[in-house]
Amino acid sequence: MTTTTEHPARVAGTASQAAVRARDKAAWVALFAADGIVEDPVGPSFFDPEGRGHRGAEAIAAFWDKAIAPTEQIEFLFEDSFACGREIAFTGKIRTYMGGQVIDAEGVFTYKVDEDGKILALRAFWEQERAMATMKPPGTR
């Protein structure tokens, strides 16, 4: 069961998820600190071949254009969250609808915030091959 206390990282993480669900790029980018970073997934991937992450507003906005904008819908199906210090880890899956297919990325999704509640780091730990193996048309098992 996810705790709902007003922890600053939980507030920022849920605001990030809400902006993605609302398809609001400007609101999402505005949640990040000036030197914030997105690593989704962590390490080399089709979104980040060098595995360095997307740092700063311009790079984070470009990540949106590459990874979020082409989707039809994204759902955050998190089972629980754990807040410690200025960080939170959500566990569960992100379900993405794109091109008439559904893909589930199961993993751990972390947010670290600064003293002002701005996101310093959004890090997503999920396996590309494992997620791609879940691809199916919506409504199928």
From TrEMBL:
Span of domain SnoaL-like? 18-120
SUPFAM superfamilies assigned to the protein according to its UniProt record, in alphabetical order = NTF2-like
Any GO molecular function: isomerase activity
Superkingdom per UniProt: Bacteria
Listed A to Z, the keywords are: Isomerase
Q: Does the keyword Isomerase apply?
A: yes
| The name this protein goes by in its record | Ketosteroid isomerase-related protein
- In its UniProt entry, the species of origin is given as Nocardia otitidiscaviarum
